[in-house]
């Protein structure tokens, strides 16, 4: 079976809170572990832009 479309969304409770705090200029730290693959690279590149 082949997919007709692919959608990759980031977020989650912890990530949303960290971004909100960052927008309020509150120092915060988000810790996590990502894999050594496309998804991990994509997640890190998005968070580095924030």
Mind explaining what this structure looks like?
The protein is mainly α and 50 residues long. It is elongated. The N and C termini lie far apart (37 Å). The model has no long low-confidence stretch (mean pLDDT 88).
Oligomeric state: single chain
Secondary-structure-based class equals mainly alpha
| Percent of residues in β-strands | under 5%
Counting DSSP H or I runs of 4 or more residues, the number of helices is 2
Residue share in helix: 40-55%
Number of domains: 1
Order of helices and strands: HH
Shape summary: elongated
For the CA atoms, what is the radius of gyration?
Answer: 13 Å
How would a crystallographer describe the biggest sheet? none
How many strand units?
0
* Low-confidence parts: none
Q: Give the termini separation.
A: 37 Å
* Chain-averaged pLDDT: 88
Outline of this structure?
By secondary structure, this protein is mainly alpha-helical. 46% of the residues lie in helices and 0% in strands.
Write the layout of secondary structure elements.
Elements: H1 13-23, H2 38-49
